[in-house]
């Protein structure tokens, strides 16, 4: 697939989630069907091996097989795709980056080394090394709030100057000052923010989302993104109702100690657009099944726009 540029990384991207059998093995038939549903949903791209894809809980053979399934289907459909090359261990990360690059995704997403926080020089050095491993495939930095090392606009601008193949970043967003600094210092990069905050992000200069709202409803997330350009006030109203849904049904699970992958699988099960299931890889805890139906009822009541017929 053609390497992406920063200007190509826009809109709503859907993630591949791992459907698991009772023995914890990946159900490859269900995973392939899920990818096909994402491809038909209208999303601007698909990616694998983000946090929601449990990249930290799969072995190298599973990593390669997910890559093969996604690459084959996206190439046939002509839809851009990205692969995460991340792992908590830096040598494994480099191996994953090289093998992901071999299937020619549009970009490779990476996290920073995750056990010991990095100083600024180490951040720049790591991204340069990751870019060398990726060869002609560009990089996207995934720097969520739970990362050990947080990259601000100034450091991001320095890293981008040192590594021209860095084309984008996924971050938690921020206030108006953060968006202004990002626009001034890192404006040549694609800036992606959380899906449930995308209307606010777009209004302040963000470019899209690797979207948890797409985990709930891929088609609905696409329709909402389109609304942001035609009816920004209405899109902000949808965002407020997403926040209400999350406060009622996601925040209590998060407060009970469930991880972000558990929450994303819960959202996909609530949305009922693919046979994903709520189960995570051992030893992680999963969302309780009895939480799904109340959340589904509220999702359809609060957000009918996200569930087009």
TrEMBL record:
Signal peptide: none
Active site residues of this protein: 142, 170
Swiss-Prot/TrEMBL keywords: Lyase
Lipoprotein keyword on record: no
Single GO molecular function: 4-hydroxy-tetrahydrodipicolinate synthase activity
Domain of life: Bacteria
Name of the protein this chain belongs to: Dihydrodipicolinate synthase family protein
Organism: Jiangella anatolica
Phylogenetic classification of the source organism: Bacteria, Bacillati, Actinomycetota, Actinomycetes, Jiangellales
